[in-house]
């Protein structure tokens, strides 16, 4: 059964970012927000990242399509956390938030960066948006994970 809302994760990443770093970031973002990975319907990014192995593998492992947008398309999206560093590197002030919001929706998880155990800078960013599912319903909720202790309450 499809949920009334689809989740879209926008992702950005440095060249060579490993799939494990991207997946850990997405898992943390969804988990911290109480969102179910079962509601994830696409991974979105900048078209220049379409061949980045870590991003391509993340979409494959999550079982969702990788949707890409040009820098011009992403630059046209209003985002809450624009970045001059992103502009210098990619031609747009946002990749993760803008890619997630490119076709509309509600930003549930603003841009967040991956955390590396070696203390070096993050190589991935993500943002999570919910948008109405294909049935067009707007019941105000995405599928959320329920901790086992709350299932019977």
Helix and strand sequence: EHEHEHHHEE
How big a fraction of the residues is strand? 15-25%
Number of helices: 5
Mass-distribution shape:
globular
Number of strands: 5
Offer a few descriptive terms.
single chain; 153 residues; alpha/beta; 5 strands; disordered C terminus
Record the SSE blueprint.
Layout: E1 5-13, H1 19-32, E2 40-46, H2 53-62, E3 66-69, H3 71-75, H4 84-90, H5 96-101, E4 106-113, E5 124-132
Parallel strand pairs: 1-2, 2-3
Antiparallel strand pairs: 1-5, 4-5
Helix pairs in contact: 1-2
Descriptive overview:
The structure is a single chain. By secondary structure, the protein is α/β, with parallel strands linked by helices. Helices cover 27% and strands 24% of the residues. The protein has 5 helices and 5 strands; from the N terminus they run βαβαβαααββ. It has a 5-stranded mixed beta sheet with strand order 3-2-1-5-4.
Summarize the entry for a quick read.
Helix content is 27%, strand content 24%. It is built from 5 helices and 5 strands, in the order E-H-E-H-E-H-H-H-E-E.
């Amino acid at each position: 059964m499809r949920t009334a809302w689809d989740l879209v994760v926008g992702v950005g990443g440095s060249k060579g970012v490993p799939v494990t770093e991207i997946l850990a970031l997405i898992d943390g973002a969804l988990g911290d927000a109480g969102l179910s990975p079962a509601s994830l319907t696409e991974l979105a990014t900048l078209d220049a990242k379409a061949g980045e192995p870590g991003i391509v593998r993340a979409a494959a492992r999550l079982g969702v399509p990788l949707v890409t947008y040009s820098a011009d398309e992403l630059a046209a999206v209003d985002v809450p956390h624009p970045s001059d560093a992103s502009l210098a590197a990619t031609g747009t002030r946002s990749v993760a938030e803008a890619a997630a919001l490119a076709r509309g929706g509600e930003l549930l998880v603003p841009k967040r960066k991956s955390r590396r155990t070696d203390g070096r800078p993050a190589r991935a960013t993500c943002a999570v948006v919910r948008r109405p599912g294909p049935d067009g319903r707007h019941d105000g909720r995405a599928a959320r994970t329920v901790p086992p202790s709350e299932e019977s309450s």
